Structures are given as structure tokens and as C-alpha cells.
From TrEMBL:
Domain O-acyltransferase WSD1-like N-terminal: from-to ranges: 1-235
Protein's name in the database: Diacylglycerol O-acyltransferase
Residue ranges of the region described as Disordered: 143-163, 251-275
UniProt xrefs under InterPro entries: Acyl_transf_WS/DGAT, O-acyltransferase_WSD1-like, O-acyltransferase_WSD1_C, O-acyltransferase_WSD1_N
Domain O-acyltransferase WSD1 C-terminal: 278-423
Cellular component per GO, a single term: plasma membrane
Functional pathway: Lipid metabolism; Glycerolipid metabolism; triacylglycerol biosynthesis
Top enzyme class: transferase
GO terms, biological process: biological process involved in interaction with host; glycerol metabolic process; response to hypoxia; response to nitric oxide; triglyceride biosynthetic process
SUPFAM superfamilies found in the cross-reference section: CoA-dependent acyltransferases
UniProt keyword Lipid biosynthesis present: yes
Family stated for the protein in its record: Belongs to the long-chain O-acyltransferase family.
Sample GO molecular function, one term: diacylglycerol O-acyltransferase activity
Length: 440
């Protein structure tokens, strides 16, 4: 359940007057300055079964930040291969659960950074906030920690709440219980006991990982949205559906009898709110219309389903299973989480998420950010996860798959790029051809 990003940087501009930078040391220094990355998980006595985040007294950033020199050849393809191998390896619980790798190799000065952290440390939105701390622009704007102030003396609160406090507490617990029961009932109703989806999506987990990336033109996505309506994310979801259909046809497979179901995460963080601790997300469930042959009709089906999900809200339906973590006591959560994780296969077939990035230009050591491919976690029993991030006029798509179940992930990456071309033509959009990185 670790997630991450593969971040590519261009060489320093030819007219840059900045002196050479030790990128590994710069990366380590900036990572060490992010407080969240110095925290590790420890069990606590109370509440029973609980755990909490504590500063790691033995923290050494050089245990987490390493450099790997890659062989010559296609640097982008080589970084994707290495990223798959590194994403296979579990993170140690006894340390802060994250790693960063500086990937170097070519003579032209290009390099990449692989960021890998456990989902317990951050959800997608918070992972962006944490990872952005390595960039020049974010690090320069970071405010130094405030000086600790002497606490003011305040009267101690009463040992027991009054009658009104007891009523409010009981009402809150009943509301939480009702929400938990409602989500649980939705989970039962949404569960399908039959093995649905394509053969690759129904395969058992092997523990291996493979990574592929593709870049599509954001303006072409917006052109389709302007013609067909909906949102840019609707267009991207329809592109994923059509890409899967195209990929299965290339594999000689017919569309599955039941359309595969995607888990589409929804952040519940308020804009501008402090990160806080833990995860703040829910999700929608979306049946990807692979059985629909017409690309424009697929987009309409996706738009209709997402509009229905949004009208119901992110706290209803089986996709809100993650919300239960907020409602259950620690002991129940500790025993229930493995069961919920094992049941993921009955609820959805793949994860498809859109991870927003800062709109401003970013760099590391004066080297401009060229592309950032997010990598979503694979739940137990899942073979494929798709993550997308718009940045700099492009949408960077990161694919993470079980290596044994999906050995041809590069073909799926190419199918996604081709599907957007088809969707542009099917809707009569006028967007120019985009630059794609097929099969990385």
C-alpha cells in the first residue's frame, strides 16, 4: 500500500549562472526539513489496539535518500523499469515509511527522482504537499518553525462533561454509528461475488510491480470537454475506459461480460486547510463502460455516472469505505482493516485517481521539472492502478500493475494515448495532436 511519483527533470538551462549542485545532498537536506518525514508509527497502550505517530529519535535521512546510476540507453524507459523494481519492495515499519531515489545516468544532465511513501503517511493530496517540499520554489517559501511559546495558565476542564456535553457526545456517536452502518450496508449491496472484469484484472497478486508512463496534451482533453460537456476528469476517465477496451482487443480478449468497476478517490480536505494527520478521503465507484463500442457514448455514460455520484456525495455508497476508518475505535479498525483490504476485490477492479499538482513552474537545484508521473497503491487482489496529474499543459499518467498479471503494461500506455486521439475525432474536437510517451 505504498504510493509515490516518478519525477523527471530537464538539464539546467544553458544560460544558468548557478554553480553545480550536489543533487543527492540537496534532496536529503530538503527531505529532512519536512517534519512529517521524520515521523514513525508506534503502538500505544491506550486506546487498546491503537497506534500513533512519534518523531523518530534515530532518524537519519541518508537511510531514506539514495542515488542509483542507471545504464545507458533510453533513460525514460530505464527509470520506469527501475521504478517497478523499487515499488515491489516493502517499507520498514520500524522507520519513517518513505524512501527517495535519485536516478541518474545520461550525459546530458537529465535525472529523475522516485518518491515512495506508505499510504498511512499520506493520502494523494497530502503526498503532493509533502513531496513538493523538495522543489526549489516550495523550499524557498517554507517558513522557519516558530519559537515555542510559554503556555498560558488555563483553568483545568471539568473531569466529567455536563448534561449538555453528554447529550452532544451521544448524538455524535450515534451519527457516526449510523454513517458506519449505512456505508457497511452499501458495501454489502455493492459487493459482487462473481469474478468480474478482464482476465488480467482478475489475476491473483504476485507481489511484483511494473510501471509504465504516458503523457497526453491537456488542451486536447479540454477541447473534448468543451464540445461534449462534463469535466476534464470525465474525459480522462472515458479515455481510461476506451484504452482498456482497446488493450483487451489487442490481447485477443473480448470486453468482459460485466464492465470493470473503478474506485475513484475523492479528497475531503478543504482548500487551504492545514494538512493535519492521517488520511482525509472517500471515493466513488464507477463502472467503466467497456461494453460500449462508441467513444462518444462511453464519455456520456461516464459523465452521467459521475454526475450521479457527485449528487449523492462522497460520504454515501460503498466507495466511502475509507470513511469507516474515522468512525471505528482503534481496536475494531486494527482487526477490520485487513478484512476490508481483502474484500477490495469484491468491490472494485482497479483504482483510477486524479492527483492535482501546483500550477506554478517547479525545479530542483535549478533543473526544471519536466514530468511528474504519480503512482497509486495496489490494494490486495488488485492488478492495476491508474494515476493522472495535469502539469505544464500536459497530463502525466502513471500506471502501476502486478508484473505477473500485466506483463504488457507498455501496450496499455500506448492504448491510452491512442484512445484520446479517437475521442477527439469522435466528438469533433479540434485539438492538435499531442506528444505522447508510448510504452514507457
Amino acid at each position: 500500500m505504498h504510493l509515490g511519483a516518478l519525477v523527471h527533470f530537464a538539464p539546467a538551462p544553458a544560460d544558468a549562472a548557478a554553480p553545480p549542485v550536489d543533487l543527492l545532498e540537496l534532496l536529503a537536506t530538503r527531505a529532512a526539513a519536512i517534519p512529517r518525514l521524520r515521523m514513525r508509527v508506534r503502538d500505544v497502550l491506550l486506546p487498546v489496539g491503537g497506534a500513533a505517530w512519534f518523531p523518530d529519535p534515530d532518524f537519519d535521512v541518508h537511510r531514506h535518500v539514495r542515488e542509483l546510476r542507471l545504464p545507458g540507453g533510453d533513460f525514460d524507459a530505464e527509470t520506469a523499469r527501475v521504478a517497478g523494481e523499487l515499488m515491489e519492495q516493502p517499507l520498514e515499519r520500524g522507520r519513517p515509511p518513505w524512501e527517495m531515489y535519485l536516478l541518474t545516468g545520461p550525459d546530458d544532465g537529465s535525472f529523475a527522482v522516485l518518491v515512495k511513501l506508505h499510504h498511512a503517511l499520506a493520502d494523494g493530496m497530502r503526498a503532493v504537499a509533502i513531496g513538493a517540499g523538495i522543489f526549489d520554489e516550495i523550499a524557498a517559501a517554507r517558513t522557519p518553525p516558530a519559537r515555542p511559546r510559554r503556555p498560558r495558565t488555563r483553568p483545568a476542564p471539568p473531569a466529567l462533561p455536563g448534561a449538555r456535553g453528554l447529550m452532544d457526545l451521544a448524538r455524535a456517536r450515534l451519527e457516526e454509528l449510523g454513517r458506519a452502518v449505512g456505508v457497511g450496508a452499501s458495501v454489502v449491496l455493492a459487493s459482487r461475488l462473481d469474478q468480474r472484469g478482464a482476465t488480467a484484472l482478475a489475476a491473483h497478486s504476485s507481489g511484483t510491480r511494473t510501471v509504465a508512463t504516458v503523457t497526453v496534451d491537456l488542451e486536447r482533453v479540454r477541447d473534448v470537454r468543451r464540445v461534449a460537456g462534463g469535466t476534464a476528469n470525465d474525459v480522462l476517465l472515458a479515455t481510461v475506459a476506451g484504452g482498456l477496451r482497446r488493450w483487451l482487443a489487442e490481447r485477443g480478449e473480448s470486453p468482459p461480460a460485466a464492465d470493470p468497476r473503478a474506485l475513484v478517490p475523492v479528497s475531503r480536505r478543504r482548500p487551504g486547510a492545514p494538512p493535519g494527520s492521517g488520511n482525509r478521503f472517500s471515493a466513488y465507484l464507477l463502472d467503466l463502460p467497456l461494453s460500449t463500442a462508441d467513444p462518444a457514448a462511453r464519455l456520456r455514460a461516464v459523465r452521467t455516472a459521475m454526475d450521479r455520484n457527485k449528487a449523492a456525495g462522497p460520504l454515501r455508497g460503498a466507495g466511502a469505505l475509507a470513511v469507516l476508518a474515522d468512525q471505528l475505535p482503534p481496536l475494531a479498525h486494527r482487526f477490520g482493516a485487513p478484512l476490508a483490504g481483502g474484500a477490495a476485490r469484491m468491490l472494485f477492479d482497479l483504482l483510477v485517481t486524479n492527483v492535482p499538482l501546483p500550477r506554478s513552474a517547479l525545479s530542483l537545484g535549478g533543473r526544471p521539472l519536466r514530468a511528474l508521473f504519480p503512482m497509486a497503491p495496489l490494494a490486495r487482489g488488485q492488478s492495476l492502478a491508474v494515476a493522472m496529474s495535469p502539469y505544464g499543459g500536459d497530463v502525466h499518467i502513471g500506471l502501476v500493475a502486478d508484473g505477473a498479471a500485466v506483463p504488457d503494461l507498455d501496450l496499455l500506455a500506448a492504448a491510452l494515448a491512442e484512445e484520446l486521439d479517437t475521442l477527439v475525432r469522435a466528438t469533433g474536437s479540434t485539438g492538435a495532436e499531442g506528444t505522447v510517451d508510448k510504452g514507457r
